[in-house]
Amino acid sequence: MKPTLLALVSTITALLLAHTAAAQEEFPPPSGKGRVVVVAAGASGKPAYREVSRRIAALGYDAVLFESNGWANTQGKGLRDAIAAALRMPHALPGKVGLVGFSLGGGYVLGYGTAWSDEVAVVAAWYPATTGFTDPAAWAAKVRVPTVMFAGENDTYNRCCLIDKARAIGKAAQAAGAPFELTTYPNAPHGFVLGGESYKPQPYADAFARTQAALRKALD
Residues with Cβ < 8 Å from 30, sequence gap 6 or more? Predict the structure, then answer.
């Protein structure tokens, strides 16, 4: 191989590795290693979800934050690949993972992760994108993973996450006997998480406490 070609290959490899690293951020637990929690960011990207990822890590988990914008039209493969990548992180312990998703990322963990009981222990979906849930009953029939979902009753963001659809999803899950719990917050808009565009202390604190309880029950 000529030196110039070798240099080109090395440069391309470095760029690919840098892109892969940029797509995820690991927040290790204080103990050094912990069970994995995949955090799926909303369409606005990772920055708004770094603080909540740090707080999940502080609970003793290896929180790995991913962009979810590239998962469209992958039929769940983007999320599956993220789970596999998270389990390869330096501070990850083996076993089933927890999924915590927000907005767009919340839609993916709710739509796909809830059926993957072979690799997912628990799902927490915060104000998830639900426009793709055209048949809540069909979705509910496939739910096998304990799931908590949080929705703001004043969420009108791009009409992606309306409260009526959230309630329809909750009703379908109840009818199917799925391990699912919906919590709604009066006067809460989209993005009420700490670091989000519409942070609201009360709903955030309650949703985080419920997420913590769900993670503890499933992963500890």
Answer: 57, 58, 60
How many residues are present in the chain? 220
Tens of pLDDT along 132-157? 999 999 999 999 999 999 999 999 99
Are the beta carbons of 146 and 122 closer than 8 angstroms? yes
> In degrees rounded to 5, what are phi and psi of residue 16?
-65, -40
What is the residue whose two structure tokens read 């309880």? 213
Taking the CA atoms of residue 32, residue 36, residue 39 and residue 40 in that order, the dihedral angle to the nearest 10 degrees is: 140
Q: Which residue, chain included where needed, has tokens 């659809």? A: 165
200, two tokens: 């609201």
Sequence-ordered alpha helix ranges (H) in the chain: 3-22, 50-58, 77-87, 104-111, 136-140, 163-176, 201-219
pTM exceeding the 0.85 threshold for the entire prediction: yes
Q: What does the pLDDT look like over 51-73, one tens digit per residue? A: 999 999 999 999 999 999 999 99
Residues whose CB is less than 8 angstroms from the CB of residue 81 and which lie 6 or more positions away in sequence, other chains included: none
**Is the separation of the CB atoms in 152 and 163 below 8 Å?**
yes
